[in-house]
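Case study B.
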Amino acid sequence: MYAQKKKIAGVALIGVALAILPFVIGMGFGNAWMRMLDFALLYIMLALGLNIVVGFAGLLDLGYIAFYAVGAYIYALLASPHFGLHWPLWAILPLGALVAGMFGMLLGAPTLRLRGDYLAIVTLGFGEIIRIFLNNLNAPINITNGPKGIAGIDPLAKNIEIFGYALHSLYLIYYLFVALALLIVVVTMRLEKSRLGRAWVAIREDEIAAKACGINTRNVKLLAFAMGASFGGVAGGLFAGFQQFVSPESFGLFESIMVLCMVVLGGMGNIPGVILGAVVLTVLPELFRQWAGPMQMALFGQTYIDPESMRLLLFGIALILVMRFRPMGLLPSSRRKAEFEHAAEEGVTS
Amino acid sequence: METFIQQLINGLTLGSIYALVALGYTMVYGILGLINFAHGEVVMIGALVALAVYKALAATLLPPLLILLVGLCVAAAVCMALGWAIERIAYRPLRNAPRLAPLITAIGVSIVLQQFAMLFWGRSYHSVPALLPDTSYDVLGARISAVQIVIMLAAAASMAGLIALVQRSKLGRAMRATAEKPEVAALMGVDANRIVALTFVVGSALAALAGVLVSANYSIAHYQMGFLLGLKAFTAAVLGGIGNIGGAVLGGVLLGIIEAMGAGYIGDLTGGVLGSHYQDIFCFLVLITVLVFRPSGLMGEKVSERA
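Model:
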């Protein structure tokens, strides 16, 4: 009884914090920070989607951003002047999730027999194929508008006025993103405990043993790809509406790697860890970029390293250091941590 | 027919370079079972260091061929040191960590190397001076340049050297033993740490050679040149069966030829609907098709699922 009360209080506290967070950040730091907050939420959704494939099912996917791209282009095509269509958000998002999920199956089907790094390179190739098609499908029929991308996409929300108080659209978008991110968190948490989630973990640990226990590994793997992909598709649709512009450039391999880093750095398979990873890798590099210039000016009187490469440099160093000292990630799941320590004690090299 | 032979020559040139880089991936994979994501950046560093040497020696009146050789030697030395350092910093501490951890550190190393190169050499494309004679020869109606001949010969020679090293020398035997089973190799008196470090060093020397050759081929060097090249070479290594040296060579050459043929013919085959910018799709489609039917690559051994 007491534990349950404590849990309810915790949830309520998180709810209140999430509700007032935008006002603290928006008032205190300005709209640039609000945008960053919204981006962090998008990356949380992406990272949680990839976590299903990589963290739960143990299938290394290096082309995850392709599903984000699919979701984004579906929104862009159905709600922009490009085809003159202006569908409502709530019609597009489920469609985007569905189509991205189908793409996930499409990727999953031929790769069922592949293991580890072979799977990694095929998913990487798949991601590149999608990007190259987006880049070139402006001829003979103009579908994606090629490298120029699609502009003028319908916004997710407009600035509104409540009780005579002007509210920037970024705030409404924030609440939309928080709601969807929470939905995804709840769904993944429920999935993790479900029969399907346990089947994924079984496959990750030992595919043959899982099969012997009666798990239909083919269907379960395909479901992992499809579900992970559909989360990516939802996030992609939100991204398109948020930026009001999409181009193939946003969906390169580096983005896939970035999302993978969030999952692994935060703590693969552990939902709070993945969320932390997404927030840290969105916010910290941005902070460094903003501070790097002024700090160098103050210290040396001139800028030696331009902020953008400073950001990447620090990002790279951070990846090395975190993995060096916390190879299980910042917040590892208890199960994996136990396994790791067990293996280390026995001196087993995996 | 001329187009066919011309594309075959271009493909073989490109393929020899892919094969050289793929060897680096495959050797590390064979011995440690992990992808060295930073290998492409080693190639880039090799090319840029060699270029710096060319520039420094341009004022002296040394014969161009000698300048090229000096550049290659300096680049190889730098890359070997770099390969050793990468192993020490990013891989050795994580030998017993979960499988994805070294992948992430490798990505980190790759980003750091790229940014360092950018700070050092700038964002611009550097043109690489032509140090080889600018002659070309007629082969059945197609042209083959001296540069292309040198690339193929150099690649073939170093691959033969590598195979001899791995199959015949004491070091090679130790490498194969470590790849087979590190614990047992250690019991037989093989210093596994030293062997792994040497594997990185040898792979990096080949990467330096590849960097010099690729910048001679395109006459251009750039801080981001390693990324796509590394990706293609890794694809080649997987295509051939990762961990297998012969497979890396086969995969590299095949991939080079497929790409050149794709670029040469795709427009005609599809009536101009698909242009040559789809050539990258070609190589990935071939890869996926091959892996569907042979899940461990063309020459990869059929490994049991779990030891």
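Chain B touches chain A through 54 residues (CB under 8 Å). The remaining cases will be described in the next quarterly update.
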